[in-house]
Design goal:
The chain is an alpha+beta fold and 151 residues long. It has a single domain, classed as Nucleoside Triphosphate Pyrophosphohydrolase. Helices cover 23% and strands 32% of the residues. The strands form two sheets. Strands 1, 4, 5, 6 and 7 form a five-stranded mixed beta sheet that branches. It has a three-stranded antiparallel beta sheet with strand order 3-2-8. Strand 2 and strand 3 form a beta hairpin. The model has no long low-confidence stretch (mean pLDDT 94).
Length: 151
């Protein structure tokens, strides 16, 4: 694990007028929730990666960036994780973005170009941390704190 690099990526933290954040349920594991996230491709800036990933995963066409974490937040994959990314990378180094939907835009999974998620809901940041896989907990706390959503 230690010899592998971190995958560079982005996390989109959508916040609504009530301070709730958007979490999405993964298609590959029932009742497995996370914030939308994804990798940064070669020669792609972070903002472009964020917009591309949010379209691919949630069908979100328009968003407004409110804040960006000043440093990436890392997490390691557990050794037991048997996923293609875990074979190539030690974990992920994620730049977190606080974003909001523009006007009446909403996630529309029928517009998503991949099938990573099957459902989404708006929850309090504390609930988001309770819903996610335990090995991401500390990175979520750090990400929420970096964006001023600590609790």
């Amino acid at each position: 694990m230690l010899g592998k690099p971190y995958r560079v990526g982005v996390v989109g933290v959508f916040v609504d007028k009530n301070g709730h954040v958007l979490v999405a349920e993964r298609s590959d594991a029932a009742n497995s929730w996370q914030l939308p996230q994804g990798g940064v491709e070669d020669n792609e800036d972070y903002e472009a990666a964020l917009k591309r990933e949010m379209m691919e995963e949630l069908g979100i066409q328009r968003l407004k960036i409110l804040k960006k974490s000043s440093n990436p937040i890392h997490y390691d994959f557990p050794e037991s994780l048997n996923a293609p990314l875990a074979k190539k990378y030690r974990g992920q180094a994620m730049t977190w973005f606080l974003v909001e939907l523009i006007d009446s835009d909403a996630p529309d999974l029928s517009l998503a170009t991949d099938d990573e998620f099957v459902n989404f809901k708006w929850v309090e940041p504390k609930t988001a941390i309770e819903l996610i896989t335990p090995w991401k907990t500390e990175s979520y706390r750090a990400g929420f704190n970096a964006l001023g959503l600590g609790f």
